[in-house]
Amino acid sequence: IGNSFELTCPPKSNITMVTWKISPKIGSPCTLGYRADQNKTNRTTCSDSMDWKFRPDWDPALEIRQVGIAHEGNYTCEVVATEGNFHKTYHLTMLVPPRLTVYCDDHGNPVCEAVAGKPAAQISWALESNSTLQEEGYDNGTVTVLSKFLTYSTNVTNTTCIVSHPAGNQSKSIAC
C-alpha cells in the first residue's frame, strides 16, 4: 500500500493493439487502449493513478501508483499481435497488516487488539483460558479484532497475545 506496482502483458513483437481491462471490486470498470496503426492511446474512466509504465509500443506494462485498497480487483491485458491474440489476467488483493495493541481493561483483564487488518487477524493467547472475541469491519475492507483474556478463574500475572496474519505474525506480553 502506498507504493507503485507494475503488471506486465505477454511480451510479443509486432503488436497491433493492447487493451487493459480493469474491473475493481469497488467502483466502475475502466480501460486503457493502444492501437499501433494510429500510434494512439485511449483511456475510459481510469483514475490518474493507473497508466502505461512506458510507451505502450515499447512495453505495454500497466503501472499503478500509490496502490491502495481501492485498486483491488481483476486486471486483464489483451494483446493482438501477428502471432495471434494473447491475454493475461491478474487478481489483485491487498494484505494490510494489523496494528497490535495490548492493554489492561478496568477489571484487570488483558485485552489484545489487532487494528485495521485485511483480512481479519486471528488472535490467541499463550496460556489456555477463556477469552472473548469481537470483530468490527470498516468500509475500506479492513477489520479490527479484539480479544479479552478472562483471568477471573486463574492467578495469571503475565500473558502473551499472539496475532496471526498473512502479512506477518506478531506477539506482545502484558502484566495486569
Automatic annotation (TrEMBL):
GO terms for biological process: regulation of neuroinflammatory response. It comes from the Eukaryota. It is found in: Membrane. Keywords: Disulfide bond, Glycoprotein, Membrane, Receptor, Transmembrane, Transmembrane helix. It holds the Pfam family V-set. GO terms for molecular function: signaling receptor activity. The keyword Transmembrane helix applies. Belongs to the CD200R family. PANTHER family: CELL SURFACE GLYCOPROTEIN CD200 RECEPTOR 2, CELL SURFACE GLYCOPROTEIN OX2 RECEPTOR PRECURSOR. This is MOR1B protein.
